[in-house]
Structure formats: structure tokens, C-alpha cells
Design brief:
single chain; globular; four-stranded antiparallel sheet; seven-stranded mixed sheet; mainly beta
Length: 130
């Protein structure tokens, strides 16, 4: 899967931005996709993920209730709507595809480790000013 992310930029604290990630490749529609972010001093960490149909979404606690991930399989695109932005949201955001999943008694679980992601897009910088 090839990924092209865009939508980053500068926003004020409390403001909003939307990221989008266009996927191409024959497996893109069957891919669990998500977003990660990384700052210069920290490792790449999970932000959000969405399953193949778009029916299940997963969020890190730090963004739950503020960010919304969605996908349009007809356009092979995944989105990240970011609201109520905080200065700590400043980071380079990376689109991810072919995320690893596991089955459990509670349903599908998405592996949130960056080490198990199959495909990465180039990062897009989000800067939130306070």
C-alpha cells in the first residue's frame, strides 16, 4: 500500500485541523488504517485507527473525544478530524496502513505498536500554538 498524507499546518490551541491520507494499491481497501505521531524527543506513538469497514474506531486516551478518524473506501482515503487542539498535539503525524490485528473474546484488537505497522506514509507536520 502506498500512502500520501496531507492537511498538516498551523493551528491555534482550541482550533481544528483535518488530515487526510490517500491510499493506493490493491490491498488498500482491506487494510486497517490509522494515524501515529512523533515529536523530536519521543518515539512514534499511536493516535487512532479504523477497521476495514469503518465500523470500529480506536483512539489513544490523549485524543479520545477530540479527534475523529473516518474512512471513505470509495476514495481509498482515511481522515483524521482534530478538534480542540492542544499544544501537546504538536507533532509530525504519520498515516499507517496494514496495521496488525488480533482476535479476542471481545472482538478485533488493533496492535498499537508502531513496530507492527506494514506501511507508512510520509509525515505531515501539525503545529499548535498556545
Amino acid at each position: 500500500v502506498q500512502l500520501q498524507a496531507c492537511g498538516g499546518g498551523l493551528a491555534r490551541a482550541g482550533g481544528s485541523l483535518m488530515l487526510s491520507c490517500a491510499a493506493s494499491g490493491r490491498t488498500s481497501r482491506r487494510s486497517v488504517m490509522g494515524w501515529f505521531r512523533q515529536t523530536p524527543t519521543k518515539e512514534r506513538v499511536f493516535v487512532a485507527a479504523i477497521n476495514r469497514s469503518g465500523g470500529n474506531t480506536y483512539y489513544d486516551d490523549s485524543v479520545a473525544g477530540r479527534f475523529t478518524i473516518s474512512r471513505d473506501n470509495d476514495k481509498n482515503t482515511v481522515y483524521l478530524q482534530m478538534n480542540s487542539l492542544k499544544s501537546e498535539d504538536t507533532a509530525v503525524y504519520y498515516c499507517a496502513a496494514d496495521m496488525t490485528t488480533y482476535s479476542s473474546d471481545y472482538g478485533e484488537i488493533v496492535d498499537r505498536s508502531a513496530n507492527t505497522v506494514g506501511s507508512w506514509g510520509k509525515g505531515t507536520l501539525v503545529t499548535v500554538s498556545s
